[in-house]
Amino acid sequence: MQEKGREIDNSDLPTNVTISLLPKPTPFESITFVTMSNPSPEILRAAVHIGASHASMIILRISEDGTEERVDFLEKNIP
Questions:
Q1: Domain extent for 28
Q2: Residue 75: which residues within 8 A CB-CB, separation 6 or more?
Q3: SS3 sequence, the chain?
Q4: Per the count of CB atoms within 10 A, which of 2, 7, 10, 43 is most buried?
């Protein structure tokens, strides 16, 4: 290699050098995790009925104690 007209000996330079541009990671021991309790997701059930003249669908919400609450009822006439 030449630099400004003179020869430079680079035989003593390391050939495999890994340099990271990222900051050093924070060790997990110094991190405090805070969790928030999330309510359990809603359980929804749907039933679809297709008859000769109409199609209908009922949507129910199931609570944790097993009771059912009607959310919606959809009905469409089939021509």
A1: 2-77
A2: 54, 55, 56, 57
A3: CEECCEECCCCCCCCCCCCCCCCCCCCHHHCCCCCCCCCCCCEEEEEEEECCCEEEEEEEEECCCCCEEEEEEEEEECC
A4: 43
Q: Which position has the higher pLDDT, 60 or 79?
A: 60
Instruction: Tell me the pTM.
Output: 0.46
Core vs surface per residue 36-47: b (16+ CB within 10 A) or e: eeeeeeeeeeee
**Measured CA distances, 12 to 4, 5, 8, 15, 45 (Å):** 20, 20, 11, 9, 72
Position 19, amino acid: I
Q: Are 10 and 1 in contact (CB under 8 A)?
A: yes
Chain CA centroid to CA 9, Å: 53
